[in-house]
Amino acid sequence: MATATQADKAEEKTDGTAPDSVGGKPVRVIFIAGWGHSGSTLLGQAISTAPNVLPLGEFIFLDFYRHRRPHPKLVRPFECTCGVQVPDCDFWRAVFQRLPEDTNIVVDGSNRSRILWVYRLMRYLSGRRGGDAVSPGDDHRVFTAILDAHGATDVLLCDTSKDFARLARLLMMPGIEVLPVHLVRDARAVAFSYSKKSRVHLGLKPMGFYKALWLWTGVNALTRLVLRLSGLSAVPVSYERFCQDPAAVLRDLNSRLGTNIPTDDVPGAIRALVSHEIGGNTVRFKPIAEIREDSGWRNAISAGRARVSGWFTGPLHRLWTRAPR
């Protein structure tokens, strides 16, 4: 099957709704892929301490912030990390002034609609764009407006949305170069987090432990499928290894992404970070003292459940976080 590489995609022309590049170069986007409760907010903050990286947060929720539309996953709705509401933030207001009212960003939907984006990517890469082609202008137009409002074009944007459907869509857009990072956390920790009854107080429904294990497997497998179809090799990151040795992980990211993330005092660099992020864990609003693994799940679930679920998910965790040869 003939496939289109990102270089091929960058040379394609749009329908006139957006330019193909900024200053003759594609917009470069670091995209943290994976599933929720895996530490993407923390990793994104660490990556964004690099002077040539501009953090966006979970950009998939931009339309909700822009139009003040509630969403159950937005725990502190409409608030920018600068401390004010996104529509009142000077940075985002400058971005929105550069955008037409009908500009849209794809948001998360049903599992069926999200899987459909993988099918569209397959058709796109096989050359059968036709009716499955997406409107190529929106994300590129927004990214361009962000770079313009920021005042610099030679920076990498960092999107921590994680969603494989959004990743698939970005890979079909001319003028955008995706630099994927696949973040994977121990499935048992993720499943425990999703099954907490305390989620009810946040307006979220707790999920069954084994259902969460199954979704952890499916989402990460679909993420790898999207990357395999596109021909891209993601930088694999283990949440546990990042917490144990953040400097080593960040050095690897620097060499693979072309960034200059400081590695001497990562918590200090994060505390000094001034950003305008949206979405993500509320940890982004709190000063961080240290990077350490949230390992409370180890004492909270039974040894039998930990052992059985580890037999099933452990090999996948090792496969997906294995350093490339």
Note the main attributes of this structure.
325 residues; alpha/beta; 5-stranded parallel β-sheet; 5 strands; 10% strand; disordered N terminus
Give the secondary structure arrangement, pairings included.
Layout (H helix, E strand, L loop, with lengths): L5 H6 L15 E7 L6 H8 L5 E5 L4 H5 L23 H8 L13 H15 L11 H14 L5 E7 L1 H7 L5 E9 L2 H8 L14 H22 L4 E4 H6 L1 H12 L8 H6 L25 H4 L2 H18 L5
Parallel strand pairs: 1-3, 1-4, 2-3, 4-5
Description:
It is a single chain. The protein has 325 residues and is of the alpha/beta class. It is built from 14 helices and five strands. The protein has one domain (6-185, 234-295). It has helices spanning 6-11, 40-47, 62-66, 90-97, 111-125, 137-150, 164-170, 187-194, 209-230, 239-244, 246-257, 266-271, 297-300, 303-320, and strands spanning 27-33, 53-57, 156-162, 176-184, 235-238. The protein has a five-stranded parallel sheet with strand order 2-3-1-4-5, sandwiched between helices. The longest helix has 22 residues, at 209-230.
